[in-house]
Amino acid sequence: MISDKRIAIKFFVVVLSCVFVTGDAEVRCIESEREALLSFKKGLINKYSILSSWRSDECCKWYGVECSNTTAHVIALDLRGANLRGKIGSSLLELHHLTHLDLSRNDFGGIPIPKFIGSMKQLQYLSLWGSHFSGSIPNHLVNLTNLRSLVLGENDFGGIPIPEFISSMKQLQHLSLWNSNFLGIVPPRLGNLTNLRTLHLSQNDFVTIPPQLWNLTNLCSLDLSFNSLSSISLSGFVLESLEILDLSYNQLNGSIPDMGTFSSLIELQLSVNNFAGSIPLSIGQLSKLQVLDLSSNSLEGLVSKSHFMKLHKLKKLDLSFNPLLNLDIAPDWSPPFQLSDISLIRCNVGPYFPKWIRTQRSFAYLDVRGANIRDEAPTWLWSTSSLLVSISLSGNQISGTIPNLSSTSILYMDVSYNQFSGPIPLLPAYASEILLSGNMFSGSISSICKTRHRDLQYLDLSNNQLTGEVPDCWEKMPILQSLNLANNSFSGEIPPSFGNLEELVALQMHGNDLFGELPYSMRLCQNLILIDLGGNMLTGEIPIWIDQLDGVKILNLRGNKLHGSIPTKICNITVYIDVLDLSLNNLSSIIPDCFNNFSALASKDPTGFYTSLFAPTDNINGSKHYGYSSFQWKGKESEYWDNLEFLKLIDFSSNRLTGNIPKSFSSMRGLRSLNLSRNSLTGYIIPDIGKMEMLDSLDLSHNQLSGNIPTSLARIYTLGFLDLSNNNLSGKIPTGTQLQSFNASAYAKNDGLCGNPLPKCPGESLRPSTTDPVENMDEKDGNILSFMQEVAISMVFGFIFGFWGVVGSFILKKSWRIAFFNMFDAAGDWLYVRVALFVSKWRRS
Ligand SMILES: *[C@@H]1O[C@H](CO)[C@@H](O)[C@H](O)[C@H]1NC(C)=O
Ligand SMILES: *[C@@H]1O[C@H](CO)[C@@H](O)[C@H](O)[C@H]1NC(C)=O
Ligand SMILES: *[C@@H]1O[C@H](CO)[C@@H](O)[C@H](O)[C@H]1NC(C)=O
Ligand SMILES: *[C@@H]1O[C@H](CO)[C@@H](O)[C@H](O)[C@H]1NC(C)=O
Ligand SMILES: *[C@@H]1O[C@H](CO)[C@@H](O)[C@H](O)[C@H]1NC(C)=O
Ligand SMILES: *[C@@H]1O[C@H](CO)[C@@H](O)[C@H](O)[C@H]1NC(C)=O
Ligand SMILES: *[C@@H]1O[C@H](CO)[C@@H](O)[C@H](O)[C@H]1NC(C)=O
Ligand SMILES: *[C@@H]1O[C@H](CO)[C@@H](O)[C@H](O)[C@H]1NC(C)=O
Ligand SMILES: *[C@@H]1O[C@H](CO)[C@@H](O)[C@H](O)[C@H]1NC(C)=O
Ligand SMILES: *[C@@H]1O[C@H](CO)[C@@H](O)[C@H](O)[C@H]1NC(C)=O
Ligand SMILES: *[C@@H]1O[C@H](CO)[C@@H](O)[C@H](O)[C@H]1NC(C)=O
Ligand SMILES: *[C@@H]1O[C@H](CO)[C@@H](O)[C@H](O)[C@H]1NC(C)=O
């Protein structure tokens, strides 16, 4: 997706700079050509009536049609992006003077490129990109020897090499074949196209660049990004006219070649390759260079002033993700350039804050995440560029306080995981994302009420030392989507103005000292997906209006002082719920038997969180935090960040719940972790517990469950943690590899359990059929259980909260991991596009 956008944007630049379609003129339409156009229109499905003007006599004034001023012949037909479908009629052949044909960005439904186009010998410009053509490229195009521009990108030509005949189109100046599933080698004969000025072959699967390409001495733009190129040899070639060279996203290795002969370069993109060694000094001689992107390679060594010697025009510098690159440039360095984008993520920029940034008066974008800076933030940082739009400093050890930012132009600010202290600053008035997590900010946050933040969507103040009440002015942030106040020392009640946050998706306030009941107004936050209020001192009952928040996926109320029963209304928020954690409260009475309605938990697929809606923070590794929450998994209190969406968990442990385990639990076939321990549950373990076949962790310990262990439990092959101890269970532990692999402690302190891993049962003959667990046991369990007594003993547990310190790891299965990274790529693209958009918007204005 990144690449599509990049390429589309790049392509438009080419189109704009290389093609001129002049306006209408006062000439009379030629009747035969009018007929031809009408006949062409007949074949098309013109859904959005774009061709409604194609009716009048004067066809030269029709949409997309251009006639010659002098002869009145139709010379250009430009129907790009016209949402056309249907058939491309050969009546176009009647337009003998047509030199410019653009049918790009329509949808021709996978048909091959029509052969008749090859007979339009007079064509100079042909663009069919992104119009859903497929199949092979017809040889008939070989006769288009007058073509200056051929644009066929973003179609699916089904894994063929570039047709040889293209290299006989001697006049070609622009050839664009990106993202069209071409593979193999770039034909060396393209080196014969000596008039080529642009060659765009990105997003195919080419493995080598033939040296003949470097003979294209008129080339001004070469894009080979997103291929599988592994080596490049430039020595001996002189490419004086090349302005844009994009080799990013390949597997190029070795050192970056000498760039001395590329004296016209404006843009050099070498990111995401395997380039090693030091940056060649010849780059510093590229006096026209505006964009230098060497990010995500394995470059090393010291970056010195000489590397930038003549880069007077440089605007964008990206050396990110070269962890061995050292940018410790002398503090008095006065660079020759004025940058707009500075990106030095995960290079060694520190230990001191780079002073040369002070000379940059107009940068919009500064990103020095994880750049080993251990220094106080200079006061000029916030004011040196009045155009600052985006600043990311996270994952360093930057200290100091942050001044009043209310009148800055900052839209995006991430200073998380540093050592900033003092009060939180007055926030930039028009910011949309502010991330201050993991610092030492202290005191009250009532200052956020001073101004309206009409654009604020993400506010993360978690993991600081903030105190006082949560302010009651949330109506001033009307489009807030994600609020994280977790792990601070906020006290008081949850203020009612939260009810104004209609867009709120994620609310995280765990690990504070909040008390009182959930405000009634919260029922109005109907977009909530993640509610994490664990580890506070909230009282009252679980509100019955909870059913109004029916989009919730994660509801975490663990470790509070909630009492009363679990309301049956909870069964009305079941469609999306993945995580329901009510543990460590004072809940009593029986568990409602309505878990057959939990559709997300009944599904075995990861439900695909709307993760990009949560704080889209790039963390110091360039990946994302979606906000996090803290749950118990396999006995460990764990924090879940990006992997939240893979969690399917029910935890009612450490309450005072009574009665049976509801039969409907077995419907939750996708559940991964179930913890009902430390309650007063009675009765038997539901016989078809084995239907929860994704279960990884099951804790039913410390209850008064009786009867046998159902044999179906032995069928849960994914089970990695089991605790049935401290119950009244009896009988033989069902055999099967799974249940025998657990420690004896998993079964300890029961009435009469026996068999591996516990000591042998005294009279094995009493239960002969247990050797065949898969077949028959459900009924048998039922019979045995039918005479079981249900004993209710109420137990009061002290409860515990505040275990927020233990970080465990959640080891995903491989398939999940793949899904996860796919998701995270998609979200990365989303952020990339957003940032790119607003930076470019800002530039234009
Ligand atoms: C045709 O008309 C356009 C403006 O309508 C003008 O720019 C162009 O030079 C004209 N071409 C010729 C060949 O007269
Ligand atoms: C190209 O044009 C020549 C002469 O006009 C013709 O003989 C030949 O068949 C054409 N080739 C194709 C592939 O259409
Ligand atoms: C095109 O280039 C190849 C080598 O790359 C050469 O053998 C061939 O003669 C050239 N063809 C023409 C028509 O120049
Ligand atoms: C490049 O062109 C020169 C002369 O035009 C020729 O001698 C040389 O062989 C060509 N190189 C390649 C790799 O085609
Ligand atoms: C570069 O990659 C190629 C192909 O993968 C390999 O043969 C070559 O040894 C590599 N060179 C270096 C310097 O790593
Ligand atoms: C913060 O800056 C704004 C704009 O410059 C100003 O109006 C406001 O009074 C300042 N606030 C404080 C507390 O300094
Ligand atoms: C909570 O915040 C403190 C800083 O106030 C930090 O040291 C601690 O690691 C944070 N805890 C978690 C679980 O992030
Ligand atoms: C759930 O909501 C429906 C209608 O919205 C209502 O009829 C039903 O009684 C509710 N069920 C529970 C358990 O609250
Ligand atoms: C738990 O709730 C009961 C009432 O349901 C109350 O009597 C008891 O004090 C509560 N226990 C704690 C520790 O708050
Ligand atoms: C729950 O599911 C049952 C059928 O399985 C259905 O009759 C009932 O209406 C559902 N309840 C809710 C609240 O969706
Ligand atoms: C970042 O990457 C490093 C090394 O690859 C790893 O040790 C660290 O845990 C990562 N940190 C985060 C927050 O992902
Ligand atoms: C279940 O919850 C209790 C406390 O509520 C905890 O001690 C236990 O470790 C949890 N079990 C698992 C498997 O996480």
From TrEMBL:
Residue spans crossing the bilayer: 791-812
GO cellular component terms attached to this protein's record: plasma membrane
Residues covered by the Leucine-rich repeat-containing N-terminal plant-type domain: 31-68
A GO BP entry: response to other organism
Record family assignment: Belongs to the RLP family.
Entry-linked PANTHER family: LRR RECEPTOR-LIKE KINASE (PTHR48063), LRR RECEPTOR-LIKE SERINE_THREONINE-PROTEIN KINASE FLS2 (PTHR48063:SF101)
Protein's recorded name: Receptor-like protein EIX1
Organism encoding this protein: Salvia divinorum
